[in-house]
Please model this.
Amino acid sequence: MHLAAYFPGVNNTTVWTDPRSKSQIEFASFEHLVRTAERGLFDFFFLAEGLRLREHKGRIHDLDVVGRPESLTVLNALAAVTERLGLAATVNATFNEPYELARRLATLDHLSGGRAAWNVVTSSDAFIGENFRRGGYLDPADRYTRAAEFVETARELWDSWTPDGLPRPFAHRGRHFDVAGEFTVPRPPQGHPVVIQAGDSAEGREFAASAADVVFTRHGTLEAGRAFYADVKGRLARYGRAPEELKIMPGVTFVLGDTAAEAQERAVEIRRQQISPQNAILTLEQIWGVDLSSYDPDGPLPDIDPEPESALARGRVRVADRYAVAEQWRTLSREKGLSIRQTVIEVSGRQSFIGTPDAVAAELDELVRSDAADGFVLVPHLTPGGLDEFVDRVVPLLQERGVFRTEYTGTTLRSHLGLPEIVWKG
Model:
């Protein structure tokens, strides 16, 4: 089983009101979480990215995280306080260029002794693109073609130095990039930093099968996980790849208790903290596309239809069919007698694994044995101490089951993940 730790902040699972919640930009917070993950023998530490603070009704959403440091800068600093833990940065392939990003990733790989990873994400959002010189607009159909060529170009740059330290000129001529020159950084210790991909569309799955080493997915249940696992792994053969060359790791949350009842009670309280009354109304407005501030969070859902197009929220994932989602939520609310807040909690405030440490360890083990995942990216609900309890109480049980390492046997992230070595293409 492979395990990774996600730094909480760029999502609504983080509980900011808890007295134990600390800063999401101070170095001490990052250091605490990576030291915990390395103590737990995790494969890697994972930073998300936000290139613009999200807005709602023309204002920065004050329940969102305010401040998102640049990922690679943070990871270069964390390389100095860790020895074996992989360091993964989410970096956008739409708003960066291959030469510069390849240099930054190769530098991290050298400074960390071969522990760098790149989570490739894309965007066609002109709102985010306003922060960039060329306006940022990219047709959705071009997102993955650019990303695929971006990864291909970066790998050409990393291969432009020979393994014995000799630089060679490079040249790439393609649809999205036309670059030539000499790369300034010697070949990375891993050959190529590990490539992670998180898209779930048909294009995203195909991109993962063709170019990724790890897939970060939302499919954390047995049935959905097995379907996703079979689909993506089934695409590998057409690219000459074996199933073990791609690791599938869903993002999951957890709540532990000494008894099942205690864990459930804690989970209910965490859900209520995650979905405040204000956040419930805001979430509803993102679906309906209209101002619902006059509605009572403890009252029924609106009986009006959503607006098909709305600019109420900017910087968030677009809802493809607002009416269908609204109908689904209203049906759920009627059947279970749920208020607005209770409905939002039901559909978006859910923990993946709830129970005693032994029960959680058994369930994680079952998903891996059932080909629903190769491992998990754990998303704590607290910054920075939310991972401590899992490392102290669940990891030893996984080790007793013989499904998780008791020590690091390699020094690079590729070795942790059991990925094949990169053969230099001279």
Q: What stands out?
A: The longest helix spans residues 143-158. The mean pLDDT is 91. The chain has two domains: 2-257+352-417, 276-348.
